[in-house]
Specification:
The structure holds two protein chains of two kinds. By secondary structure, chain A is mostly helical. Chain A is 75% helix and 0% strand. The two termini of chain A are 27 Å apart. Chain B is globular. Classes of the chains: A mainly alpha, B mainly alpha.
């Protein structure tokens, strides 16, 4: 009898773990230093650092796995060169915000990597999925290079209040005389960045505890399960507002509160799907051969529950994104003067009663991104379920 | 019947336990406050005497478990204490607003439920037709919209451009019933649009799920008419999931009301809640979240109980 092979989508065991861990430790250390004095100014540095770290891990993993072809390499190199060329042309702006430039470069390369790797799937994707992917790409690039493409500073007052659309101010100015177009770009970076970080954190907490509960069972499962039941008994919007009243609305507390509340949903899903995998023969075989818990989770369970988790990530992101803009719209989320789509709608809402649609643009920006993500998730789910049947 | 009775009793007991735990959480949140409530409210410059007086007035000098019991008993008798910001009785603030909020949610529900269920059944009937596909894209889109976006679009189109409805819903008790409905129209419409999409997607999924089962295929092979299949064969079994969907969305309505009320300056519970959160008026926030959470828990409980009661397998035991 042969031992069933574990389905392992990540690289083999020989992957450079030591270097990865060392790199993660260094990044984490710098991150902690930055987090100690998070202000509006260092926020971009934190996001940049986080993504630089994520990027290097992804690049390391995928560079070894990717099916290298001449065409694929050409695409990646071309895209990189194009970005560098753009940076060289607008060098004055690009050099003034090195983090954004670096981050933009990382994003361009990640997209190129992903496009080359999944080109076969992408070619068969329906129009709605392409729409979603392009929307996401545009948002990510705008968010990455916000300071470089925005004509003015985020909180800079550049004109009189409520100016109309003109050449100087593309979308007019807001209630304090700040450039609307600039705020829209920066708002995208802040809102999307915070929503993404929150979702990531929610998945780390919820996913890990969910899989752990399924793998260990017993009292741990019971305790975590009841805890989640209790947290889910209160509507999350109300709960978030209640807690934010007490801890106050700062960006870190906002991220933590929403992440924990959202982790409950992720926990439920992760636990449910892992339960189905844990009882399968190959997991038992692995545990009989003496593999540790971490190995079981990472190499046996995780690869098999990845598709539903990825789809859930998209949906959760939408949910967190709407949640966050809802909070900001109420004036209880991201605080001024940081630009944010929810609070931009609220601040300029007076214009709406005069029939001016400018304040609706941030809301439309929120809607378009959520629609895009929903379309991509729809396609992904369809594909994942189709492959299984 | 005894089986149903036992199941329902079990759910009710569980619901009661949930309510208790929820009240405990809402109470304990105050304990999480870094430092001390008195210090937080009175500021750094407060003398020890004023802090002590403040603590005594709110009963903060008692041990937590004693405070919880008195708090809970007071709440049950309708005494919510006093607001920190305005010094008024909270129950006084709440009375009218709770009524208004339920009125709004009720109007929205009366429009939304029949609409969503009909559309959902139709989409399931004509699956994969152009109607179904259009509905799929439309509902996906409207789920993706933030509530305030829908609300402002309605304001621009119906209030500013067409002048059909007022853009601010100013409700007071002395208005006639229809006048009230007229002024509530826009917020109710917003809520309807937001929750119809969700409700009908779930209705459609529930029915499609059922239409794939063997006994429906059997009915079809017998040569029954589609209408008869749906009404006589599918609907009794689909009732449980549909009722579940409807009641869960009612629970959503009660929570979704917060954002919509703020947009339309509707004098309801949500508005009060948001105001109190920004003023950090903790007793009012506690009272409001308790009411919201209770409604939510009770509606979820109702969904549970109704879906047990409408389950044909349990209703007609062999």
């Amino acid at each position: 009898m042969t031992i069933p092979a574990s389905s392992n989508t990540f690289g083999g065991r020989a992957s450079p773990w030591v270097s990865r861990i060392a790199m993660a430790a260094v990044h984490f250390f710098i991150l902690v230093i930055f987090l100690q004095n998070v202000t509006v100014d260092t926020w971009s540095a934190v996001v940049g650092l986080l993504f630089a770290h994520l990027y290097s891990v992804v690049a390391l993993t995928y560079w070894s796995k990717i099916e290298r072809t001449a065409a694929g390499d050409t695409v990646i190199v071309t895209v990189t060169l194009e970005f560098v060329l753009m940076a060289a042309i607008f060098w004055e702006r690009a050099s003034a915000w090195p983090w954004s430039t670096l981050f933009g470069l990382a994003m361009v390369q990640i997209c190129a990597f992903a496009a080359v790797k999944y080109w076969k799937d992408l070619r068969q994707a329906p129009a709605s999925a392409w729409f979603g992917l392009i929307v996401i790409l545009i948002y990510v690039m705008v968010a990455a290079t916000a300071p470089i493409i925005a004509p003015y500073g985020e909180t800079e007052i550049v004109g009189s209040e409520y100016d109309v659309w003109s050449n100087k101010h593309l979308l007019g100015t807001d209630n304090l005389g700040r450039d609307m177009f600039t705020r829209l770009i920066y708002g995208g970076r802040n809102t999307v960045g915070i929503a993404f970080t929150t979702t990531l954190l929610a998945f780390l907490i919820g996913g890990l505890t969910g899989i752990l509960a399924a793998a260990v069972r017993g009292w741990l499962d019971q305790v975590l399960g009841r805890l989640v039941d209790v947290l889910m008994a209160i509507p999350s919007f109300i709960f978030a507002l209640l807690i934010l009243t007490i801890v106050g609305t700062s960006i870190p507390s906002l991220i933590m509160v929403i992440a924990v509340l959202d982790a409950t949903r992720v926990f439920r899903l992760a636990r449910a799907v892992s339960m189905n995998v844990v009882v399968l023969d190959f997991v038992e075989a692995a545990s009989l051969r003496g593999e540790g818990l971490w190995w079981l989770i990472r190499s046996e369970i995780l690869p098999n529950i990845l598709p539903p988790l990825v789809a859930e990530f998209g949906l959760r992101f939408c949910f967190v994104f709407l949640f966050l803009s809802g909070l900001s719209f109420l004036g209880l989320g991201i605080q001024p003067p940081t630009a944010d789509w929810g609070s931009m709608v609220r601040d300029n809402a007076t214009l709406i009663t005069y029939g001016d649609i400018t304040p609706l643009l941030p809301a439309a920006a929120i809607a378009i991104l959520t629609i895009g993500v929903n379309f991509v998730v729809d396609w992904f789910l369809h594909k994942a379920s189709g492959l299984k049947d | 019947m005894s089986q149903i009775g036992r199941l329902v009793a079990q759910r009710l007991a569980l619901g009661l336990l949930t309510l208790f735990v929820v009240s405990l959480i809402i109470f304990l949140c105050i304990e999480l406050l870094p430092g001390n409530l008195a210090q937080e409210i009175l500021g750094q410059g407060a003398t020890p005497e004023t802090v002590a007086a403040f603590n005594r007035e709110l009963g903060l000098d008692l041990p937590p478990h004693e405070r919880y019991i008195t708090w809970l008993l007071d709440m049950l008798q309708g005494d919510f204490g006093r607001s920190l910001a305005s010094q008024r009785e909270i129950s006084e603030l709440l009375a009218v607003r709770v009524q208004n909020t339920f009125f709004l949610a009720g109007v929205a529900a009366i429009i939304a439920i029949p609409l969503a269920v009909t559309l959902g059944i139709l989409a399931a009937l004509y699956r994969d037709s152009w109607y179904d596909r259009m509905v799929n894209v439309l509902t996906l889109t409207s789920i993706s919209f933030p509530e305030f976006f829908v609300a402002y679009i309605l304001i621009i189109v119906l209030a500013v451009n067409l002048g059909m409805f007022p853009s601010i819903s100013n409700i007071s008790d002395d208005l006639g019933f229809w006048e009230k409905v007229y002024r509530t129209a826009l917020p109710a419409l917003t809520l309807t649009l937001v929750c119809v999409a969700h409700m009908m997607r779930m209705t459609r999924a529930a029915i499609i799920n059922l239409m794939a089962s063997p006994y429906i295929e059997m009915a079809r092979l017998k040569g029954l008419k589609p209408g008869r299949i749906i009404l006589k064969h599918a609907l009794p079994n689909a009732l449980a999931p549909i009722i579940n969907v409807v009641v869960l969305n009612l629970a959503y309505l009660v929570v979704g009301v917060v954002l919509v009320e703020v947009v339309f300056v509707y004098p309801g519970l949500g508005q009060l809640f948001v105001d109190s959160v920004s003023k950090r008026d903790i007793p009012v926030v506690q009272a409001c979240s308790l009411i919201f959470a209770m409604t939510y828990v009770l509606l979820n409980l109702l969904a549970d109980v109704l879906s047990i009661m409408s389950n044909p397998r349990l209703l007609h035991p062999r």
